[in-house]
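#onboarding

Welcome to the new folks! Below is a worked example of what a typical request in this channel looks like: someone posts a single protein sequence, and someone else replies with the predicted structure as tokens. Don't worry about understanding the tokens yet, we'll cover that in week two.

Example request:
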Amino acid sequence: MAQSVAPRSVVPIREVVIPDGGDVRYAITMTVNGVPFEVGLDTGSTGLRLLPRAVRNARVEAGEQPERYSYTSGVLLQGGRTMARVRLGAAAGIVAIHAIERASCVQAKPDCPASRIPLQAYGLMGSGRPRAGFPAIVGIRLQEGRIPNPMAALGVRRWIVHLPQRGQGDGLLVLNPDARDTAGFVSIRPGAGSSGTVGSCLMALAPPPARICGLTLLDTGAPGLTVRGAKVPSNWAPQLPARIAFVPEAAGSAPALTFRSGDRAHGAHAAFMPDRHLTRPEISAGTLPFYAFDVLFDGDHQTIAVRPNRNAGPAVRPAAGAMQQR
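Example response:
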């Protein structure tokens, strides 16, 4: 049961570059049982999950209910479900967490990042690099789960993710934003039957015309575009201009962003994976949309809205004239 609404507060979001591979991740500070941790921020998953070293440091009780959770990378986390006192900014409460005991791989991906190093050197979101990544991860996707998004238990009804531009300092996570914070956001249509996704179309801006439309996940935990259920478009090539256009909730111009395909620094490298079992494509847009837009997540109404990121640069930017303010 959710507690009373927490006061508005702002938490810095820090850019972290994983050594060797160069992948970028984003982190916030959360306190568990009075102990602060750097926690990976993941809008593509649910739940607060702690590696054994974080469980020990925070003196978290062992979970009596078995818990397992896997990611698209193939990493499988196993342990137990338990409760702990958690603070994020000015929000605090008793939260269900995953006390991890083992990190391995799902059967279909035996070479996942967790297979490369022992657990004591493994970090969440660390791409399998020794001593990289974080001792904990917090998934804040709008989706149910046995280990849920902790925002409701903390009294947070809405939150804004404002990612920093690459190499330009901290971003912001705004908890329970006020009317000034939420001015200018445009709601985008939720994906039918898939919690935490929205409708969008991906297209290369080169002839011949072609676009891929489907359920789309905005995922700060996964740099790179992944398109399942579609072949590589004939007009898709590195360094060509491309666009993602979201389906607006109300009539009006569609919020859209432009970028150059293959721009790894901004998560625009793409993988297309045909899948005959899917009735329509599924798009993981990764971090890319966050460089063009601030994203407002509404936990009460299970909706997502966007607004141009005021720091957007020329590499990834809102499409000219694509936003209708209201």
